[in-house]
């Protein structure tokens, strides 16, 4: 008998801005990523989003991406072949409201998602919908200042209300904001924030996050009013931060880093800013401007479940000199853990850390959890016969799923598991295709060349067996 219940939601996860393409099709407006080139030029200060879309670069990865916009039927059929019970995907805000501030939605954009939902329903795959996955319309960033402007709350609520009204009969599980804490690490993508050199960066980021929190709470209110069965979740970019040594200064430094990632989820789950936020904001020189009633809104409309991504744990020291040795494996920088191996992109592989993180999150909030991102980005080789032997990915996933099941045995309630990038997609941070996560290979390279043909990797058949056994067969 499987440790996981018969209703456990096995599946995969993708995001509109990383798979769809069709960036100027059927009335879609510019997404934040539509202005981002690939490679080093993607990173500030080499790239300045304030300059808008121009011809400085010959390739923008999101403009075609993997063309899910035209190939969604083929891709969903492959997901169904693997046995997916659920697909976590996002709806592109600028596909529905091209500028973001319109009063009426773009019906052509909604029509596309109607067809996606139809196809999922055809194969019995439950949709898990992220309302805003790093996809604030660029126009709101350029004209309004993104989430730093309180008006964006109203624009978001107008958008969310359209989705709830149209799709609540088809969607049970919603996520308001993808990885809300990433606004502190990639503020342009996370919050549509175009921060200049002399700006008070901390003030802008935390104020923008407050507006996202208010928007999340009010969206929860609206969703419940439209259909009380709607389940609304928040999402955390998770991964426990360990102390570098047993030195008390290191332990305190790790505690502070963990609080930095949990602060927004504390608000969304518990309904108020945590006690430690007062000193944190004072130390950062941040003052959160609130409107009358904000505290009551946050307290009244909390989330139903906690969803999160997990890729690796991190190490933190209380010694500034030691912390100079941090390496950035992703948007998060960490000291190197001598007990762990790392991927080709420097992500430290820590399966036990998933169990630790799950226990920490549940101990903190006592709400059901949902793993909505987990996976290994690596370089895959296509053999002459078209096969792809990604044993490294299978090993990574198997070991993480083993620890996930151990956490469930620990008493952590878990709704489901949707691994990230179930089909190869464009990296959000680097714009690369070379860093592949999928069970399905997409023939496209870092410069946008390739047939876009889909190929099943070895992991495709492995995950198929995992789902068939409800997690009992993780062998590799």
Tell me the strand percentage band.
5-15%
* Averaged pLDDT: 95
Please tell me what the overall shape is: globular
* Low-confidence regions: none
Distance between the termini: 20 Å
Instruction: Please name the CATH topology.
Output: TIM Barrel
How helical, in percent, are the residues? 25-40%
Could you give the count of β-strands? 16
The CATH architecture is Alpha-Beta Barrel
Question: Radius of gyration, rounded?
Answer: 21 Å
Main sheet?
8 strands, parallel, barrel
CATH H-level superfamily: Glycosidases
Counted by DSSP, the helix tally is 15
Task: Note down, in words, how this protein is organized.
- This protein has 476 residues and is an alpha/beta fold.
- The chain has a single domain, classed as TIM Barrel (Alpha-Beta Barrel), CATH 3.20.20.80.
- It contains 15 helices and 16 strands.
- The strands form five sheets. An eight-stranded parallel barrel has the order 1-2-3-4-5-7-13-14, surrounded by four helices. Strands 6-8 form a two-stranded parallel ribbon.
- Strand 9 and strand 10 (333-334) form a beta hairpin.
- The protein starts with 8 loop residues before the first strand and ends in an 8-residue tail after the last helix.
Question: Any chance you could write out the topology, listing elements then pairs?
Answer:
Layout: E1 9-13, H1 16-19, H2 68-82, E2 86-90, H3 93-96, H4 107-122, E3 126-132, H5 138-144, H6 151-167, E4 173-177, H7 187-191, H8 201-226, E5 231-238, E6 241-243, H9 248-270, H10 277-284, H11 294-300, E7 305-310, E8 314-316, H12 320-323, E9 327-328, E10 333-334, E11 341-342, E12 348-349, H13 351-365, E13 369-373, H14 391-409, E14 414-420, E15 440-442, E16 454-456, H15 458-468
Parallel strand pairs: 1-2, 1-14, 2-3, 3-4, 4-5, 5-7, 6-8, 7-13, 13-14
Antiparallel strand pairs: 9-10, 11-12, 15-16
Helix pairs in contact: 2-4, 6-8, 8-11, 13-14
């Amino acid at each position: 008998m499987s440790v996981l219940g018969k209703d456990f939601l096995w599946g995969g996860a993708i995001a509109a801005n990383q798979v769809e393409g069709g960036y100027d099709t059927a009335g879609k407006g510019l997404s934040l990523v539509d202005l981002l080139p690939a490679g080093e030029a993607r990173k500030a200060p080499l790239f300045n989003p304030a300059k808008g879309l121009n011809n400085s670069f010959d390739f923008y990865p999101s403009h075609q991406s993997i063309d899910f916009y035209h190939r969604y039927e083929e891709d969903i059929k492959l997901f169904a072949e693997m046995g997916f019970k659920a697909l976590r995907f996002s709806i592109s805000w600028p596909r529905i409201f091209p500028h973001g501030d319109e009063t009426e939605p773009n019906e052509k954009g909604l029509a596309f998602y109607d067809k996606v939902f139809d196809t999922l329903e055809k194969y019995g795959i439950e949709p898990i919908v992220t309302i805003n996955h790093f996809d604030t319309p660029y126009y709101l960033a350029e004209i309004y200042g993104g989430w730093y402007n309180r008006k964006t709350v109203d624009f978001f609520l107008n958008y969310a209300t359209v989705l709830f009204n149209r799709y609540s009969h088809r969607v049970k599980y919603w996520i308001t904001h993808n990885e809300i804490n990433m606004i502190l690490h990639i503020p342009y993508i996370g919050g549509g924030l175009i921060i200049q050199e002399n700006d008070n960066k901390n003030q802008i980021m935390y104020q923008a996050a407050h507006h996202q929190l208010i928007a999340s709470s009010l969206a929860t209110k609206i969703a419940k009013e439209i259909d009380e069965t709607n389940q609304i979740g928040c999402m955390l970019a998770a991964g426990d931060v360990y102390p570098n040594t047993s030195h008390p200064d290191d332990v305190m430094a790790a505690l502070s880093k963990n609080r930095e990632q949990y602060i927004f989820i504390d608000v969304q789950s518990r309904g108020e800013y945590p006690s430690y936020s007062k000193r944190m904001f004072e130390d950062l020189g941040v003052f959160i401007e609130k409107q009358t009633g904000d505290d009551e809104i946050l307290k009244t409309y909390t989330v139903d479940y906690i969803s999160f991504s997990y890729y690796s744990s991190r190490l933190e020291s209380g010694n500034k000199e030691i912390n100079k040795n941090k390496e950035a494996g992703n948007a998060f920088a960490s000291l190197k853990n001598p007990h762990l191996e790392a991927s080709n992109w420097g992500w430290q592989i820590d399966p036990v850390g998933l169990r630790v993180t799950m226990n920490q999150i549940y101990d903190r909030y006592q709400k059901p959890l949902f793993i909505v991102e987990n996976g290994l980005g690596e370089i895959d080789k296509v053999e002459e016969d078209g096969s792809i032997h990604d044993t490294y990915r299978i090993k990574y996933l198997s070991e993480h799923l083993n620890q996930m099941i151990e956490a469930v045995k620990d008493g952590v309630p878990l709704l489901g598991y949707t691994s990230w990038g179930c089909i190869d997609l464009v990296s959000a941070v680097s714009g690369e295709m070379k860093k592949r996560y999928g069970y399905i290979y997409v023939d496209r390279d870092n410069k946008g060349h390739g047939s876009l043909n889909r190929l099943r990797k070895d992991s495709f058949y492995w995950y198929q067996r995992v789902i068939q056994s409800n997690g009992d067969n993780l062998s590799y």
